[in-house]
Amino acid sequence: MTQATDIRRAPAHLHTALGLAAAGVPPLPLRAGKVPFGNCRTCAQNACGGRPNMKTPGPCHCPAPCHAWAAATTDPNIINSRAWARAWREAAGVAYHPGGAGLTIVDLDNTDAIAWARDTLPATRTVPTTRGEHWIYRGAMRSANAVRPGVDIKSLMAYARWLGWGGGAMAALPGAVRALALTDPPPARRAPQTLSAPLGGQGGECRHRSPVYLDRGIAMAEQHITAAREAVHATVYRTFLAVLSTHGRCGCLTHTHVARLFTAAQAKGETPRHCTDAWTNALTTLGL
């Protein structure tokens, strides 16, 4: 049979999976509760010894990786094979491996997370979810959970439920998203910069919306630093990077704004030297 015939005769989820594979997006079947299947009989009922929820690859003697994101493939022969036939008949949904398609999902789990993304990240393709939104960027990176309240990153070695193509133009993966997955800022790479004047060359006027937008962004950044209960180093660096990625090229950030961020960080126990290094590293990362 041809692939076209397979698609016409396939169960709905298999039809979706073959369509994704044809578009270069590697799919996999999902059980109820967003739990993956194994892709061979050896892994039936978790007999191969993987983790009980099968969300990560486990020790297995299959001819190919068989769990979760590692099972995702764009090969229609595997997707439409007898080994996967039962899984597609029983599947409750379809998932895909974003990193395998060169994509990163910022998984926003509630309205507060969505508001943060709209204020902080560049607009991109958006897919509505049950509780929030998936923001999809071009480019792959390491995945990380709970990078901030209500925000997960799904890319390499992760899977996400397929909920449709969404809407909007897909933007390139920004540095502010990559920074969310860092456990600590990189070591300082250049001498500290004196921050007594606005950054950039746009005359000190915020090009985004209004001065109110900038003030609200700084206030949110202060709150994010203040709310950190662990990984304060990483939180400070990520916050600095997010602020600079949004406002660093406008010329609107002044010493007063930076001082507010430094004060919030030092109130959490950071030293002035660490604040300066984190700010400098964020500038360097963004090429400012």
Descriptive labels:
single chain, 288 residues, alpha+beta, 3 domains, six-stranded mixed β-sheet, three-stranded antiparallel β-sheet, 11 helices, 9 strands, elongated, disordered N terminus
The level of helicity is 25-40%
Number of continuous helical runs: 11
Taken from the alpha-carbon principal axes, the silhouette is: elongated
The value of Rg in angstroms is 22 Å
- Count of β-strands: 9
H-E string:
HHEHHHEEHEEEEEEHHHHH
What characterizes the major β-sheet? 6 strands, mixed
Strand content: 5-15%
Tell me the count of domains. Answer: 3
Pick out the low-confidence regions.
1-9, 51-59, 189-204
Question: In terms of structural class, how would the helical and strand content be classed?
Answer: alpha+beta
Distance between the termini: 56 Å
SSE diagram, text form:
Elements: H1 3-9, H2 12-22, E1 27-30, H3 68-71, H4 76-79, H5 82-90, E2 93-96, E3 103-108, H6 111-120, E4 125-128, E5 133-138, E6 144-148, E7 151-154, E8 160-161, E9 171-172, H7 175-180, H8 211-227, H9 232-247, H10 255-267, H11 272-286
Parallel strand pairs: 5-9
Antiparallel strand pairs: 1-2, 2-8, 3-5, 3-7, 4-5, 6-7
Helix pairs in contact: 1-2, 8-9, 8-10, 9-11
Describe this structure in words.
The structure is a single chain. The protein has 288 residues and is α+β, with helices and mostly antiparallel strands. The protein has 3 domains: 3-94, no CATH class; 99-173, no CATH class; 211-286, no CATH class. The protein is 39% helix and 13% strand. Strands 3, 4, 5, 6, 7 and 9 form a 6-stranded mixed beta sheet that branches. A 3-stranded antiparallel beta sheet has the order 1-2-8. Helix 8 (211-227) packs antiparallel against helix 9 (232-247). The protein is elongated, with a radius of gyration of 22 Å.
